[in-house]
Design a protein that fits this description.
By secondary structure, the protein is α/β, with parallel strands linked by helices. The chain contains 12 helices and 21 strands. A 9-stranded mixed beta sheet has the order 6-5-7-8-4-9-10-11-12, sandwiched between helices. α9 packs across α11 and α11 packs antiparallel against α12. The longest helix has 18 residues. The termini are far apart. The N terminus and C terminus are likely disordered. It comes from Serinibacter arcticus. This is DNA repair protein RadA. Belongs to the RecA family. RadA subfamily.
C-alpha cells in the first residue's frame, strides 16, 4: 500500500522558556511548569507516514564497526581532560555552560592556544566580542598562534562557511545564544533559533568528524538558557562553576557519552589566565592556623574527587534580642540543625549568641559528611578550646546526636593522610570495615559528645567542663 501523502495543519503552541509544544493553549508549561510562557507559533503539518528510502550505508555487525574514529585527543589542559574522560572525541559536541564572567571564554581560549601549538588548526568563532577583544585576551594568557583562526560572526550560514574554508580540527562557538539562522524567524537566543543553530552545528560536526565546543549562557536560576532539547542533542554537558570573589573554578560534567560524570576539574583563575589545579588543597589549607579555637577540617567528596575544606566558626555574645546567624559556603539549614543538636543534646548555651560559620577559599561544604566538622568548630569556638593538631572530622550528625555512616570514607582519609593529617574522627559504624591509612590514628565516635572528647585538646581536661 502506498504511503499516505495527504497533509493537514494544526495550531502549535510552544513554551518560550524550554521549547515544550502542545496542540492547544495551556496556562502552565507541562515541561518546566512555568506559568504564562506558552505562546502560539503558527501552524505546522500534522504527522504523516514517511516512505522508506535506501540507506546510504548498510548495517554492519557491531564487532566490525571501526572505533579508531572516536579515539580521544588530549586538549593540553589536564583538568579538562579529566572531566571529558581523556580529551576530545572527533565529532563530539560539548556544551560548556556557566554564569557570565566565570571564565568560560578564558578557559576555551587557553585550550585553543594549546591545541594550535600542538599542530591542530582551531577555529574560534566569537559572537559576543569583537575579534580585537579576543586577541587582547589571547595575548594576555599566551594563546596567540598562527593556527588559531579567529572570526567574529553571528550568522549560522557564515559560520558554516568559515568551517568549509578553514577545515579546522576543533571548532569553538562562543556562544550558541548569539548565533542566528536566516531561515528561522526570531531573534538570536530564542528557542527556535537555538534549536536551529544547534542542529546545524551538530550536523556539521558529525559529518566532518569535527569536535565542537559550544558556550552556553545560564538563566538566573542556574539552568542552561534555551530549549531543554539542547542538552539532549549534545554529547557532553559541562557546568563551569565558581564564586566571582574567589580564584577557584570548577568544571563538572553533568552528561557525558564518552566518559564518567563524577569527575571534577579544578582551576585557578588569575589576571594572567587560568591554570589547572591537580592538587587544589593549597587554596583551602595553605593558611591554616594551628592551635586556634573554632576551626576544623573535613574531607568532602565532589563527585569522585576528595576535597579538603576548612570550617571556621565564631561564637560571640549578641547585643540584640534576636541573635544573628550567618553562613558562607555551608548550608544555613544544616547549621541551624547542628546548633539545635548542640543546644539540646550537649547543653551548649548558643541561643543567646551570634553565630558565624564559613569555609575557606570559596569552597562549598554541601555534603552532610561535614556536619561533625561544623559541630566541632562551633563547640571549639564556644568553649575557646582548640582541637587536636593534625585532625580531620568526617561524618553526618543526626538529630539525636548520633554519628551516621558515610560513603567513601577510606578515600577521604587517604586524601587527608596525603595532605599530612595524622588524626581523624569518624563514625563508630566504620570500625569493623575501615582500613586506616598508614601513619594515621583514627578515633571512632558513636555520638557527638564522644567526638568532642576525642577531638578536643587536651581531651581529659576539657571534656567535663565543656558540656556541663
Amino acid at each position: 500500500m502506498a504511503a499516505k501523502t495527504s497533509r493537514s495543519t494544526r495550531a502549535s503552541w510552544e513554551c518560550t522558556d524550554c521549547g515544550w509544544r502542545a496542540a492547544k493553549w495551556v496556562g502552565r508549561c507541562g515541561e518546566c511548569q512555568a506559568w504564562g510562557t506558552v505562546t502560539e507559533v503558527g501552524a505546522e503539518p500534522t504527522a504523516r507516514a514517511t516512505a522508506a528510502t535506501p540507506p546510504r550505508s548498510p548495517a554492519r555487525p557491531i564487532d566490525e564497526v571501526e572505533i579508531a574514529l572516536v579515539a580521544t585527543r588530549a586538549t593540553g589542559v589536564g583538568e579538562l581532560d579529566r572531566v571529558l574522560g581523556g580529551g576530545l572525541v572527533p565529532g563530539a559536541v560539548i556544551l560548556m555552560a556557566g554564569e557570565p564572567g566565570v571564565g568560560k571564554s578564558t578557559l576555551l581560549l587557553d585550550v585553543a592556544g594549546r591545541m594550535a601549538r600542538g599542530g591542530t588548526r582551531v577555529l574560534y568563532i566569537t559572537g559576543e566580542e569583537s575579534a580585537a577583544q579576543v586577541r587582547l585576551r589571547a595575548q594576555r594568557i599566551g594563546a596567540v598562534h598562527p593556527d588559531l583562526m579567529l572570526a567574529a560572526e553571528s550568522d549560522l550560514g557564515t559560520v558554516l562557511g568559515h568551517v568549509e574554508a578553514v577545515d579546522p580540527g576543533l571548532l569553538i562557538l562562543d556562544s550558541v545564544q548569539t548565533i542566528a539562522s536566516q531561515s528561522v524567524e526570531g531573534a538570536a537566543g530564542g528557542v527556535a533559533q537555538v534549536r536551529e543553530v544547534a542542529a546545524g552545528v551538530i550536523g556539521t560536526a558529525k559529518e566532518r568528524h569535527l569536535p565542537v565546543v559550544l558556550v552556553g549562557h545560564v538563566t538566573k536560576d542556574g539552568g542552561i538558557a534555551g530549549p531543554r532539547v539542547l542538552e539532549h542533542l549534545v554529547d557532553v554537558v559541562c557546568q563551569f562553576e565558581g564564586d566571582r570573589h574567589s580564584r577557584l573554578r570548577m568544571v563538572r560534567a553533568v552528561k557525558n557519552r564518552y566518559g564518567p560524570t563524577d569527575e571534577v576539574g579544578c582551576f585557578d583563575l588569575s589576571d594572567t589566565g587560568i591554570v589547572g589545579l591537580a592538587d587544589p588543597s593549597g587554596l583551602f589549607l595553605s593558611e591554616r592556623a594551628t592551635g586556634e579555637p573554632g576551626t576544623c577540617v573535613t574531607i568532602t567528596l565532589d563527585g569522585a574527587r576528595p576535597m579538603p575544606i576548612e570550617i571556621q566558626a565564631l561564637v560571640a555574645p549578641s547585643a540584640t534580642p534576636h541573635p544573628r546567624r550567618a553562613t558562607s559556603g555551608v548550608e544555613s539549614a544544616r547549621v541551624s540543625m547542628t546548633l539545635a543538636v548542640l543546644e539540646s543534646r550537649l547543653q551548649l548555651g548558643l541561643s543567646s549568641s551570634d553565630v558565624y560559620v564559613s569555609t575557606i577559599g570559596g569552597a562549598r561544604a554541601q555534603e552532610p559528611s561535614g556536619d561533625v566538622a561544623v559541630a566541632l568548630a562551633l563547640a571549639s569556638a564556644h568553649r575557646r578550646a582548640p582541637l587536636r593538631a593534625g585532625l580531620v572530622a568526617v561524618g553526618e550528625v543526626s538529630l539525636t546526636g548520633q554519628l551516621r555512616p558515610i560513603t567513601g570514607l577510606e578515600r577521604r582519609l587517604g586524601e587527608a593522610n596525603r595532605l599530612g593529617f595524622t588524626q581523624a574522627v569518624v563514625p563508630e559504624s566504620a570500625r569493623a570495615t575501615l582500613r586506616a591509612p598508614k601513619g594515621m590514628t583514627v578515633h571512632f565516635a558513636a555520638d557527638l559528645r564522644r567526638a568532642w572528647e576525642l577531638a578536643s585538646e587536651p581531651a581529659a581536661a576539657v571534656v567535663e567542663a565543656s558540656f556541663r
